Amino acid sequence: MLVYYESHISMEAAILREKQIKKWNRLWKIRLIETMNREWKDLWERILERY
What we know:
Elements: H1 11-22, H2 26-36, H3 44-50
């Protein structure tokens, strides 16, 4: 289930961000998800529609 995603201008920027978030504690990650997706809905279909 996809509950959070970010778009980046380059693969390098996306990898850097992923490494940054991986170091965060669980509470910070939950807060990040809930800023974009309070109900924790599956966002996969939204991404498919964009492309």
